[in-house]
Amino acid sequence: MQYLENFPERVYKSMLIPIMMEDKRAGEASRKGFYKYEDKRKATPDPEIMTYIQKSRSMAGVTPDAELMKLSDKDIVEMVFFPVINEACRVLDEGIAVKASDLDIASIFGMGFPPYRGGVMLWGDSIGAKYIHGKLQEWAKRYGSFFEPCSYLAERAAKGIPLSAPAASQVKSRL
User: Fold this and answer.
1) Can you give the residue range of the structural domain that contains 7?
2) What is the pTM of this model?
3) E strand residue ranges, the chain
4) Is residue 125 one of the residues assigned to a domain?
5) What is the C-alpha end-to-end distance of the chain, expressed in Å?
6) Cα separation of 19 and 78, whole Å?
């Protein structure tokens, strides 16, 4: 919540989860969420979720973009995680974290990033800062400043420096 209050331009606050929680759609614990849970924990997509999605969209004043509705799985993953990598770069640049590997561990244990990918920064390195920066720039032009790449990412993309490489002047943690 503090992050949302301090950096509203860096997040999208969806009303979907609060609306679902209001209706006690807490997932497996309540046997309904995005999925319905039958016997033996078997999850199946719940068609009722569209009602909640439409209500959330209405509250936000947005309509589905036909182009976005056709995105491939790869494009969806990139649109979700490239802003996470961008924010991780800001965290390193601001000295909130000192090493990219700290953010890899945090992404695995804190947000459930797949361990076999090595963490969000290592995964970003496998894709390349230049590609990530290019995609974020493209989306910023098309969809707004939420996707605007930070200077740390821009510098690494321009110079071909891996995201996980230590900064030239390694900052000390502010924490």
Assistant:
1) 1-64
2) 0.79
3) 35-37, 43-45
4) yes
5) 19
6) 26
Q: What pLDDT digit, counting tens, does each position of 20-51 carry?
A: 999 999 888 888 889 988 877 788 989 999 99
**138 and 84, same structural domain?**
yes
Angle at Cα 154 formed by Cα 151 and Cα 160, nearest 5°?
135
Cα distances (angstroms) measured from residue 83 to each of 79, 126, 136: 7, 16, 8
User: Helices 151-159 and 73-93, interaxial angle, to 10°?
Assistant: 110
Cβ neighbours, 10 Å, residue 118:
18
Identify the residue whose tokens are 């390193």: 92
Buried b (16+ CB within 10 A) or exposed e, 40-66: eeeeeebeebeebeeebeeeeeeeeee
Give the whole-angstrom CA distance, residue 103 versus residue 110.
Answer: 10
